Hints:
The chain is an alpha/beta fold. The chain has 30 helices and 30 strands. It has four domains: about 1-230, Acetylglutamate kinase-like (Carbamate kinase); about 310-460, VC0802-like; about 465-610, NAD(P)-binding Rossmann-like Domain (Rossmann fold); about 620-795, Dihydrodipicolinate Reductase, domain 2. An eight-stranded mixed sheet has the order 3-6-2-1-9-11-12-10, sandwiched between helices. A six-stranded antiparallel sheet has the order 14-15-13-16-18-17. It has a six-stranded mixed sheet with strand order 21-20-19-22-23-24. A hairpin with a 7-residue loop joins strand 29 and strand 30. Helix 1 crosses helix 3 (about 60-80), helix 10 (about 250-260) runs antiparallel to helix 11 and helix 17 (about 475-495) crosses helix 30. The longest helix is centred in the first third of the chain and has 25 residues, at about 85-110. InterPro entries: AceGlu_kinase-like_sf (IPR036393), ACT-like_dom_sf (IPR045865), ACT_Aspartokinase (IPR054352), AK-HD (IPR049638), AK-HSDH_N (IPR041743), Asp/Glu/Uridylate_kinase (IPR001048), Asp/hSer_DH_NAD-bd (IPR005106), Asp_kinase (IPR001341). It comes from Buchnera aphidicola subsp. Schlechtendalia chinensis.
Amino acid sequence: xxxxxxxxxSLANATKFLTVANIIEKNFKKEQxxxxxSAPENVTNSMIKIIEKIIEERDVSQNIHSVKSIFLDLIxxxxxxxxNFSYKTIKKIIDEKFENLTSIFNGIRFLNQCPDNVRAKxxxxxxxxxxxxxxxxxxxxxxxxxIIDPIENLVAQGDYLDSTIxxxxxxxxxxxxxxxxxxxxxxxxFIAGNKKKKLVxxxxxxxxxxxAILSVCLKGNVCEIWTDVDGIYTCDPKKVKxxxxxxxxxxxxxxxxxxxxxxxxxxKTIFPIKKFKIPCLIKNTKNPxxxxxxxxxxxxxxxxxxxxxxxxxxxxxxxxxxxxxxxMVAVASRVLSSMSLKKIRITLITQSxxxxxxxxxxxxxxxKKIKNTLENEFQLEIKNKLLxxxxxxxxLSILSVIGTRIGFQKxxxxxxxxxxxxxxxxxxxxxxxxxxxxxxxxxxENLIIPAINVVHNFLFNKNQIVEIxxxxxxxxxxxxxxxxxxxxxxxxTKNIDLKVCGIANSKKIFQxxxxxxxxxxxxxxxxxxxxxxxxxLTCLPKKNALxxxxxxxxxxxxxxxxxxxxxxxxxxxIVTSNKKANTSSLKYYQEIRHSASRANKKFLYETNVGAxxxxxxxxxxxxxxxxxxxxxRGILSGSLSFIFGKLEENVLLSEATxxxxxxxxxxxxxxxxxxxxxxxxxxxxxxxxxxxKLELKDIEIKPILPENFNHITHAEDFMxxxxxxxxxxxxKIKKAKKIGKTLRLVGIIKKEGQCxxxxxxxxxxxxxxxxxxxxxxxxxxxxxxxxxPLVLRGYGAGNDVTASGVFSDILRILS
Length: 815
């Protein structure tokens, strides 16, 4: 036999009632079924509100009419859709029920109170009418029906509003009923009878509990709970977009889910099906063909260590602590005993022997009661300063990760803490000892949604996620977006999900936390109404529970570079082609690194030197391995590499510079390249990586340009003025050739630590001799690499290689 239970959302209107009837019919064709029904959606809550309004002496006539209309509309619509439905008979039953309810409501108004036994009769009327209506539908379909009276046959103990069932007694009563095999069995959920056969109700999720008990009493082979979702998810799908449906849960896992707030099954429901090993299947009335979630003794896929995340809000933490706890006996037992006497449920408790501290969490509603209880219990200890005053932290939540024996899995612990650390979410307390099937963490309530999202992603998402916020859509930025767009699909096949969540130019920003369509990014940025302000980005990682948020700075803006420490502190990694941060003061240079270390974030800037060449990473690897740089020489400017190469081919300086400008190798004003300052910045970055504590002013620049060029600010004026140097440089190149050498602009770090940028005459034996056409070359003479240096060589300018270097840094965030 199969037991089917349908909740209120499955019975909300006539169409849904008829859908449920069809599901019952389909199952009955295979085996006998017993059906437990809840009240139609919102009916029970409406009844409770009516009682409250009457006690407050408010008019309830409209409320009563609304509830009655739910049933009258239901049966009228069913009558229109179904032949042979006993509309008049059932309407008469509904009319009589509400006449009786009206009399009861008048009695409440007269007494100005509602006794529990009366309240129980009112709140369960929806379940009884659901049975009446379904009985009519099934009989109209020519099925025989037996209705089990729960007041007569489910024997309860407890109060009128929250009773539990005596399973053994109830089992004897129900099994004594002679139910023909060709009958569909119906029973109202939520209802039972006490030993005096007075109606009582079964409390929260009472209809589920009724179905579980009926499954035991009728020896059901499965108990199906039909609702409005496909089953149980790894987390609330309303809060976590990529929550995954669970095919199965063990009874113990389901119990943990329920205990920590998930809308699964109430522990009271799980107990009988666990005890009698009856599988429970969660199914969707809207999608009856979905496989659902099976709750049974041993869940499938035991290799999946974490099954899901549940959470509780409105939590308060209490700290009992003090220096005298070391000599005090049974503090923990006194705390627990005092809570038990006041019937206060403790959700979570931790104890630290070294810090003389006991902490426990309860619902927010008990704060005053608990405070007074603890202060009375430990009055003498607090007075004598053996204990500190009771410390209370409010507005907390408990996040619980659930899975079989999850407490023994180090990998799960690691992922949870890594996720929360990535999101900059502080942990107030951790509890694992009370259950090997859950790990519980206490955090601020306002951070619970970001927390469950980020933990869920770390535990259940196979893809590595990166959320990119690109600032600067000039040549490098545009090229990077093109590269990202072309590689997104391929990277997904490698389980890497790169999402561009924000694109900003100097004025506007366009954002989409689900990922921007990179085919239309220009249009979206243009039409965006949101002004760009770098400071407004700081709140996004926590607000949106971002996994690996990255600021990608493709500008040369000092103001943006000045915000790096703040962005790191707020959870961003930073990838930058902007050299301003690394060439600012040494103090600021160190501040960025302190911020990255403190926030456990990455600050990557490979393209600051050598564009797409792997310079910084290789240099760091050398130093980490114990190597020491003795001497360095390098061509660090792609534009100047191109220009000096052309000089060697007898092209005049002004013409070579013009060609470099057309190819996009120079800065907007080529004066910035020829001044040597850009090379000095790159040399400073390398020097600082080596460990030299230098400022930009410490780099000696032997100028290419005479002093009378300093006052020129406009690029056009500079290019005209540059012609004056054509003959001078032509003469220099010819003199160098006569002695078998050529000219190159070289950055030098000497053994003693002095740094210099100058035009150097170099011969064919020098590794820099053949470098031209936009190439960079860096020769590191070190303890390991001498007399032959380690040489890194390749194109050091251009949007493609620079964007590629930025792209590589983005991927390194995942390493």
